[in-house]
Write a structure and sequence with these properties.
67% of the residues lie in helices and 5% in strands. Strands 2-1-3-4 form a 4-stranded parallel sheet, sandwiched between helices. Helix 3 crosses helix 4 and helix 11 runs antiparallel to helix 13.
Length: 473
């Protein structure tokens, strides 16, 4: 029975971890993608200010710079800087061995390079004589990186080129057949499982960049980033919900729509899972509208804020973009309103949702059961999320203000789960990500929340810490 209960969570955690790794190669380099997108939008022949000389930056950037950045980041995730260097060398072989932007190849060869050099370093650990360390380190990177570069050029390049063309052709066919709205059936539920960054930056962004290279824009950048469905959901909560959900929805709507932190609305769907139907309906409506108006972005919109989307819009796309966002919000609002009104008698609060999730998991929730052990010694609290930039930063900001007002000597920061330090003392995550955080730093105190804006929970935590410290003094 225990194995049966653990299996779904184990699969979910593995999928989240893999998705996080994919997005982890792209997200640190989003600024470079945006820079390329701005240059493309401005200076290509169909841009706002065509400039033949400056447009020469577009090709080399997408062909060499962006894939190499991804390759380095992928290798570094596996084995720090040495892994990154070998990852770049392996990626370079794939780039030269193809005639298209090689993002898919970079996401494979980068981590492969890091993995190979990591295994080599493990093999020779403790076996290199004193004085020869630098020689071995430099030549091992050079030889292994060179071999992987040749392998990338001769073997992986043609394979990756063929695979990339097949995927691009498939996407083009789906777009041409007007079937792209169906993607919402998969994207919206996956987002709620905290796979949003993996979908957007691990899958859609690389394919979208390929489309921009050919057509100057891509609708794929909008499939996950569209803030309309989330806005519609939160507006419905503002009007028809009760209790804490109704009180927090306005602030969440501002953070989601203007700040681009989509994770903020996930708990509101998890409180009433049938609301995923509203998200799918709104998402599909938005995609249909975008395709109908033939709009797209020139680079990923990250975060998915209305400001970022409008900034990355291709020339002539603004009317269709705004229409798609507004219509997706309206449809989501309409469907969510029906669902919320029909179940008003059995409304579930944020706090009750925590307890329900705990019961379904067969274990006690960290958000409802406080562990007092070692709280008096805590001097650093870390918020962790999938990317370490959105919801965790928001939660850390809320708690940091409360810690400062309470005059507690506690540092509050945020990071991604994969970058949690091994000596972390106290970690706060969303409940759907806690299993991953526990696996990363099992010796830390772990707490789960259903909503990073849950000020009441942070007040409770502050009081608990003060109480534990008063016992010592």
């Amino acid at each position: 029975m225990a194995n049966a209960q653990a299996s779904p969570g184990g699969v979910r955690v593995k999928v989240q971890r893999f998705g996080s790794f994919l997005s982890g190669m792209v997200m640190p380099n989003i600024g470079a993608f945006i820079a390329w997108g701005i240059i493309t939008a401005l200076f290509i022949p169909t841009g706002w200010w065509p400039n033949e000389k400056l447009a020469e930056l577009v090709g080399p950037t997408i062909t060499y710079l962006l894939p190499l950045l991804i390759g380095f980041t992928g290798g570094k995730l596996i084995h720090d800087v040495r892994g990154g260097v070998v990852g770049v060398l392996a990626t370079m072989g794939v780039i030269v061995g193809t005639d298209i932007p090689m993002f898919l190849g970079a996401m494979i060869m980068g981590p492969l390079g890091g993995y190979v050099i990591k295994q080599f370093d493990r093999l020779i650990e403790g076996k290199v004589k004193a004085g020869f360390e630098m020689l071995v380190n430099n030549f091992s990177v050079g030889i292994i990186g060179g071999l992987l570069m040749i392998g990338g050029f001769e073997v992986f390049g043609p394979i990756m080129s063929g695979l990339d063309k097949v995927m691009a052709a498939g996407v083009d066919w789906i777009v041409g057949a007007k079937l792209l709205p169906i993607a919402s059936l998969f994207i919206e539920p996956a987002k709620i499982l905290f796979l949003n960054n993996a979908i957007n930056h691990g899958i859609l962004s690389p394919l979208g960049v390929d489309q921009v290279a050919d057509a100057g824009k891509s609708v794929l950048f909008l499939l996950e980033a569209n803030p309309g469905p989330g806005l519609g959901l939160l507006l419905a909560y503002m009007v028809f919900a009760k209790g804490a959900a109704k009180r927090t929805a306005p602030g969440a709507a501002i953070i989601h729509f203007l700040g681009g932190i989509h994770e903020i609305y996930f708990p509101y769907v998890l409180m009433k899972p049938i609301l995923i139907l509203a998200m799918i309906a709104g998402g599909a409506t938005g995609v249909f509208t975008f395709v109908l108006f033939d709009v797209g972005l020139v680079a990923p919109a990250s975060p998915g804020s209305i400001f970022a989307i409008l900034a990355m819009a291709s020339r002539g796309s603004y009317v269709g973009l705004i229409a798609g966002i507004l219509l997706s919000a309206a449809v989501t609002f309409a469907v969510a309103s029906v669902i919320l009104k029909s179940s008003a008698a059995e409304e579930v609060s944020l706090e009750e949702a925590t307890q329900n999730v705990s019961a379904m998991k067969g274990k006690q929730s960290y958000a409802s059961a406080l562990v007092h052990d070692r709280l008096d010694k805590v001097d650093h609290i870390i918020f962790a999320c999938d990317a370490g930039m959105g919801s965790s930063a928001m939660g850390a900001s809320v708690l940091r203000n409360k810690v400062n007002k309470a005059n507690l000597p506690i540092k509050v920061t945020n990071t991604s789960i994969s970058q949690l330090p091994k000596d972390a003392q106290f970690v706060i995550t969303h409940e759907d990500l806690t299993d991953r955080a526990e696996a990363q730093v099992p010796d830390a105190i772990h707490r789960s929340v259903t909503n990073f804006l849950n000020a009441d929970y942070y007040d409770q935590l502050i009081e608990e810490i003060k109480a534990e410290r008063s016992k010592i003094s």
